[in-house]
Specification:
The complex is a heterotrimer of chains A (about 300), B (about 130) and C (about 230).
Chain A lengths: L3 E12 L2 E12 L3 E5 L6 H8 L7 E6 L2 E2 L5 H5 L1 E5 L10 H10 L7 H10 L13 H13 L5 E5 L7 H15 L5 E5 L3 H7 L2 E6 L2 E7 H7 E7 L13 E6 L3 E7 L3 H11 L3 E5 L3 H9 L14
Parallel strand pairs in A: 3-8, 3-9, 6-7, 7-8
Antiparallel strand pairs in A: 1-2, 1-4, 4-5, 9-10, 11-13, 11-14, 12-13
Helix pairs in contact in A: 4-5, 5-6
Chain B lengths: L14 H14 L12 H8 L3 H14 L2 E4 L3 E4 L9 H21 L3 H18 L1
Antiparallel strand pairs in B: 1-2
Chain C lengths: L1 H34 L20 H33 L1 H4 L3 H5 L5 H33 L9 H26 L5 H4 L1 H14 L4 H25 L3
């Protein structure tokens, strides 16, 4: 049983009267890469900031390595690497100067060769000033600064937003490289489900501040099913099957998105409604995510007229 | 032993399934023979930029099917073909895929004979090497 | 180690202002002393009348030095504004605040580094230059009697006033009030201290106002800095 690295307990955050995080209970164990996904404004950044003690919860608590997030000691902070979207580094410093600055905060942990290797790989020069770097290059430097101390916990808050595919790939490679070290944990939020599918072995889905899923990627992929029912008459209006999320219908077909159901239940319902046959359609993680977080009972923005 | 595996993230097929399929094909085509060593889980994971657990999972499932065997400490190897299990679910899955192909062929207007010949030709490419 | 790194960064960021203030004060001050420029400011700054005037030259010299004093007053306030804005306003607008705060160190250490850098900055730039002027004036062979230390103290009070302005700007910058009137409330306190400093009151009374003002502002800065959410 691995150690619990990140934990939240009834974590709640209000911004004025707006509820951003709603009684979140989360447990993340060591050794996994957790993909943290959700729509824009679902509360991902808020949760991360609460975990890092950058925000105060309205209720509930959060902790890292067993230490309450509001009182994180410098020792604990040294074990955590944090990269956020925007990558605001100190503009007037050169990369070399920045390395020296960062190094001072991780005594005994800094891996000079690794840093040099990364900077070299990114084709950057240590003499360059941060203000002369492009946003992609700043992201690369951020990645280097964060990975080089070999943190036990890496938290990334959508660090590759707006950046090109090559840089996104470099971040993923960095995560993979880190996870190969003993007992490391990664929590990263992203909108690119393909990236999440690649590297995450756990999926955490948050929607409107509420935890909707906390399971392995495999479990999620198995749980959200799209089933196509074929009828020889008009498909039934009422859909009373377990785990029904939303639907799409045509003249003779009904496509349902179902969650956590069994093939037996599907077969039973098909029989009950007189469907000729049904197919379980495999879809991409992105499609599954969209269906899972779509407004209830309707999976498409536009409803076409029946033609 | 270096094998080329290409995965496509974000597609309908889970990544572990893609890895399984490609390793199976590599073995079926004879590029990897019984006793050959497969790339280490970590190495393949780093190369494909996927979670090592995904690769480990693929290897594990292939081992269950009898295609691979693991020798603790040494790595994962291609298993003895005689020990490969051929269970019903695999045949069913195979049948489904055959249906797709046959359906396509028939819809395109090809006759049964043409399709049969094509099947025999391509099968020859595989069995020639094993 | 960590604190030194923070301190070095803060000092480096203020350096242009420190050098600018010091050099300008040095140059303009020397000019004023040499040219013996006539007073044109009226009653906008305090009179540095020495306790006793021996002869007319002394009076004249001391008035030149007091002109330097008025320059000192201007530059100290300007420096206070500059450092305060650089340390507590710019970081927010350029969003490097997150990076500064997410250091594996106590948040208090980040603040202490900033304030320490400000103090060192004041002492080593305008402080040093002012002391230099005072020393130079005291070496001048025209003087028959030594300058009173009161002049030097008054100068340092002005420098401290610059530091008060710095703290006021810091508090304003850290304040999360949305309305600018409440945000700049701390500057009201600064004004009070300023008025005290330029008054003709006894020295110890001025010092009390100064110390209390600095303490209150320090408390406010600390409280706001440590509690500010990102």
């Amino acid at each position: 049983m691995a150690d619990v690295i990140l934990k939240t307990s009834g974590l709640t955050k209000y911004y004025g009267s707006k509820l951003a995080v709603d009684h979140l209970d989360l447990k993340i164990e060591a050794g996994s890469i957790c993909g943290f996904v959700g729509r824009n404004g679902a509360g991902k950044t808020t949760v991360i900031k609460l975990l890092l003690g950058l925000l105060k919860p309205t209720a509930g608590s959060a902790s890292i390595f067993g230490c309450d997030s509001q009182n994180l000691t410098p020792d604990i902070r040294q074990r955590v690497g944090y990269v956020a979207e925007g990558h605001r580094l100190i503009r007037w410093m050169t990369i070399a100067r920045l390395e020296k600055f960062q190094r001072a905060f991780f005594p005994g942990q800094w891996d000079r060769e690794f840093f040099a290797e990364m900077i070299d790989y990114f084709e950057l020069s240590k003499k360059q000033k941060v203000k002369h770097l492009s946003s992609g290059q700043r992201a690369q430097v951020s990645l280097a600064l964060t990975l080089v101390p070999h943190p036990e916990l890496l938290i990334m808050d959508d660090p590759t937003l707006g950046l090109d595919a090559a840089i996104r790939r470099q971040f993923l490679e960095g995560m993979i490289r880190l996870i190969m070290e003993q007992g490391r944990t990664v929590l990263f939020s992203s909108h690119i489900l393909a990236d999440v599918e690649r590297v995450a072995d756990r999926l955490i889905v948050i929607d409107k501040g509420v935890l909707r899923a906390d399971c392995t990627t495999e479990q999620f992929r198995d749980s959200v099913k799209k089933v196509r029912f074929s009828f020889d008459k008009t498909p039934p209006e009422e859909i009373d099957i377990d785990g029904y999320l939303n639907s799409r219908r045509s003249e003779k077909e009904l496509e349902l998105t179902l969650v956590k159901t069994t093939e037996q239940k599907i077969a039973d319902w098909a029989q009950k409604t007189g469907a000729e046959k049904f197919d379980i359609v495999q879809t991409s993680l992105e499609d599954q995510f969209i269906d899972y977080t779509a407004p209830q009972k309707r999976s498409r923005l536009f409803q076409w007229e029946k033609d | 032993m270096g094998i080329w595996i290409q995965i496509s993230a974000g597609s309908d097929k889970p990544i572990y399934a893609q890895i399984m399929e490609q390793v199976s094909q590599t073995i079926a085509k004879g590029i990897l023979k019984a006793g050959d060593k497969l790339p280490a889980v970590r190495k393949l994971a780093a190369e494909l930029v996927v979670n090592p657990n995904t690769v480990a999972n693929a290897y594990r499932l292939l081992e269950k099917e009898g295609l691979l065997t693991t020798k603790t400490g040494s790595g994962t190897f291609v298993g003895d073909p005689k020990l490969r299990s051929k269970d019903i679910s695999q045949l069913n899955a195979l049948a489904e895929r055959m249906d797709t192909l046959i359906g396509q062929g028939v819809n395109l207007g090809f006759s049964g004979d043409v399709l049969m010949k094509m099947f025999k030709d391509r099968l020859g490419k595989f069995t020639k090497k094993s | 180690m960590k604190f030194i790194a923070l301190l070095k960064k803060e000092l480096r960021e203020c350096l242009p202002f420190l050098i600018g203030a010091a050099v300008l004060l040095l140059v303009l001050g020397t000019l004023f002393l040499r040219l013996d420029a006539p007073r044109t400011y009226g009653g906008l700054y305090p009179d540095f009348k020495p306790a006793s005037a021996i002869n007319i030259y002394q009076l004249k010299q001391s008035s030149s030095l007091s002109l330097v004093g008025s320059l000192l007053w201007i530059f100290s306030i300007a420096l206070g504004l500059a450092i305060g804005i650089r340390q507590f306003w710019v970081a927010f607008y350029s969003r490097t605040w997150d990076f500064e705060i997410c250091r594996p160190t106590r948040r208090a250490a980040v603040l202490t580094a900033k304030i320490t850098a400000a103090i060192i900055g004041f002492v080593l730039s305008v402080g040093l230059v002012w002391s230099l002027f005072y020393w130079y004036a005291s070496q001048s062979s025209i003087w028959f009697t030594p300058l009173t230390g009161r002049l030097l103290t008054k100068g340092w009070i002005f420098i401290a006033l610059g530091f008060v302005v710095y703290l006021g700007v810091a508090v304003a910058g850290l304040s999360t009030e949305r309305w600018y009137t409440t945000k700049l409330f701390s500057l009201g306190l600064v004004l009070i201290v300023y008025i005290a400093c330029v008054s003709e009151w006894r020295l110890w009374l001025i010092l009390i106002f100064l110390v209390i003002g600095i303490l209150i502002l320090l408390l406010q800065v600390t409280e706001k800095f440590l509690n500010r959410q990102l």
